[in-house]
Every structure is written in structure tokens, then in C-alpha cells.
């Protein structure tokens, strides 16, 4: 069983990873840390030539606080022992390395990542999940995208509905 779970929460507020981590924390009675890593130089700010850097930083910081509040609210509503943290992406470090390092510093024994995005591919980097898996010393769980999870569940229901009914003799064997 896990004692401390770290969930990486991205800027999109897509909560498949957070909801997966909440469920796992509840099942294991584990502490949960929602971690949002803030990239102070996101691709959209870098490519905008007439961008006011100070205003961009203010928007990024405001959004980071909103992500942390949202995560903390979900943790509190679930009555899970946990917290939400925001850290800045260090220069010359990848997002995956930063998440893996944070997990080690916090003593997490499980990292939960969302399955929605392949962060880093636009810059020729490795996929986030690949870097976290390579750099971390604990288990890594990739949460299913919300839509994909519903599709898997629906497929299971359809499969169960298509199975032929067992005869009396087959039921006796079971």
C-alpha cells in the first residue's frame, strides 16, 4: 500500500490524474500532494514578439494559484489528508525531472500523471511520462484520460451484455 502519493497537476485543469490520485489515496489511506510545476517561459509566451514579460509572469502566477486552489479544494472535498503545492520549473531542468525530484524530496512512493498530453514533444524533448518513469525511484501510474476511461467502461458493459447466458449445467460448474 502507498503512504504518500504525488499527483502532477497541469495548467489545463484537466482532473483525470487528480481524481485517479484521490481514489488511490482513499483506497490506501495515503497522504496526497498535488504538485503544479510552473513554467515561467511557456512556448506561447516565448513566441509572442510583442509580449510584456512582466504581465505574462503575472498571468502565469495567477493561473498557478488558481490551479493550486482548485486542487486543494478537490482534496478537501474528498476528505483526504493532503495539500496542493506550486513550484517553479528550474532553468535547465525538464518538467519530468522536476516532478521526479519533487517526489523523492517529499518521500512519495507513487506518482500519478495524466494521460492527456505529451508535454515536451514540441521542443524535441522526451514524453513527460517517459522522463518521470526513468528518473523516479517510485511507482508511476498513468491516469486514463476521462473520455478514454468512459470508453473502456462502456466497452466492458457492452461485452458483458453480449455474453450468452449460461445454461443450468454451466452455472453449476461455476
CATH-level-2 architecture? 3-Layer(aba) Sandwich
CATH class: Alpha Beta
* Number of continuous helical runs: 7
Question: Beta-sheet strand percentage?
Answer: 15-25%
**Average pLDDT score:** 79
CATH topology: Rossmann fold
**Helix content percent band:** 40-55%
Low-pLDDT sequence parts: 155-164, 169-174
- Please give the domain count: 1
| Global morphology | globular
* Major sheet details: 5 strands, parallel
Number of strands: 5
Strand order of the largest sheet: 3-2-1-4-5
Please compute the radius of gyration using only Cα atoms. Answer: 20 Å
CATH homology group: HUPs
Write the H/E string, N to C: EHEHHEHEHEHH
Helix vs. strand class: alpha/beta
User: Cα distance, first to last residue?
Assistant: 32 Å
Tell me what the structure shows:
The protein has helices at 16-28, 43-46, 53-77, 95-106, 128-135, 146-162, 168-173, and strands at 4-8, 31-38, 82-88, 110-114, 139-143. It is α/β, with parallel strands linked by helices. It has a single domain (4-145), classed as Rossmann fold (3-Layer(aba) Sandwich), CATH 3.40.50. A five-stranded parallel beta sheet has the order 3-2-1-4-5, with helices on both faces. Strand 4 (110-114), helix 5 and strand 5 form a beta-alpha-beta unit.
Amino acid at each position: 500500500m502507498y503512504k504518500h502519493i504525488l499527483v502532477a497537476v497541469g495548467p489545463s485543469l484537466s482532473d483525470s490524474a487528480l481524481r485517479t490520485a484521490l481514489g488511490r489515496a482513499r483506497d490506501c489511506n495515503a497522504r496526497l500532494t498535488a504538485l503544479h510545476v510552473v513554467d515561467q517561459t511557456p512556448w506561447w509566451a516565448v513566441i509572442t514578439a510583442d509580449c510584456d514579460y512582466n504581465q505574462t509572469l503575472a498571468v502565469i502566477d495567477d493561473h498557478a494559484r488558481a490551479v493550486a486552489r482548485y486542487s486543494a479544494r478537490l482534496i478537501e472535498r474528498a476528505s483526504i489528508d493532503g495539500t496542493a503545492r506550486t513550484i517553479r520549473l528550474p532553468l535547465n531542468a525538464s518538467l519530468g525531472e522536476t516532478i521526479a525530484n519533487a517526489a523523492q524530496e517529499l518521500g512519495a512512493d507513487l506518482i500519478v500523471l495524466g494521460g492527456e498530453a505529451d508535454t515536451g514533444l514540441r521542443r524535441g524533448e522526451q514524453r513527460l511520462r517517459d522522463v518521470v518513469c526513468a528518473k523516479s525511484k517510485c511507482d508511476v501510474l498513468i491516469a486514463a484520460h476521462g473520455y478514454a476511461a468512459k470508453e473502456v467502461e462502456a466497452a466492458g458493459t457492452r461485452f458483458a451484455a453480449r455474453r450468452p447466458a449460461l445454461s443450468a449445467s454451466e452455472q453449476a460448474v461455476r
